[in-house]
Design goal:
This protein is α+β, with helices and mostly antiparallel strands. It contains 3 helices and 5 strands. Strands 1, 2, 3, 4 and 5 form a 5-stranded antiparallel sheet that branches. The radius of gyration is 41 Å and the shape is rod-shaped.
Length: 191
């Protein structure tokens, strides 16, 4: 080996470098490139998933807000008829307004698409000021009420606290349950 010419040493060095390149460097280089590609793909997926998570958080916040709104609306238009509660409260409102309830007649429900009207015919005796107080208190009631077919007559004989007779129909509303066909199937989230 000592008597070999110098270009043999260069040829052997080139062969060693070539074998090193073919057997070690090239496979490791392609493996490194595939790892980089996988990493970039994974980073893109992570960015997309983070964007979807932000959207999901916004949707969940909106659903929570809608749940709060629904609960508030259910106090205004409840899902069940509360006859005794309505009777007790309207009598208390009339009493607080110094009115005498002479007639209180709940009528049958009138079905609508999403709710039912529940008319209640009421006749009270009192004076104008007390009747106005009653309507003001009724408007601040937690449930939704409307007043229809309103009429006032003078009473004979009149006293200091009873000068008029008022007849009207108050309507309150009841939320109707959706039918089985129109009710969307609820999806439960898997934990």
């Amino acid at each position: 080996m000592k008597d070999w010419p110098w270009y043999y040493f260069i040829l052997i060095a080139v062969l060693i470098i070539g074998f090193f390149y073919l057997l070690y460097y090239k496979p490791k280089s392609s493996e490194l490139h595939s790892l980089k590609d996988n990493r970039e793909r994974t980073e893109r997926e992570v960015i997309q998933l983070r964007a979807k998570k932000k959207q999901m958080d916004k949707i969940e916040a909106r659903v929570q807000q809608m749940d709060i709104t629904l609960r508030n609306l259910e106090t205004i238009i409840p899902s069940k008829k509360e006859t005794s509660d309505i009777l007790t409260r309207t009598q208390q409102l009339a009493y607080d307004s110094n009115l005498d309830i002479k007639k209180y007649t709940p009528k049958g429900e009138v079905l609508k698409e999403f709710y039912s009207d529940w008319p209640i015919e009421i006749e009270v005796h009192g004076n104008y000021h007390n009747l106005a107080k009653f309507f003001a208190k009724l408007s601040n009631f937690s449930r939704l009420f409307t007043v229809e077919n309103f009429s006032i007559k003078n009473l004979k004989p009149q006293t200091a606290n009873t000068t008029i007779s008022a007849k009207f129909i108050t309507q309150t509303y009841i939320q109707r349950e959706a039918s089985a066909e129109s009710k969307p199937k609820s999806r439960r989230r898997q934990p």
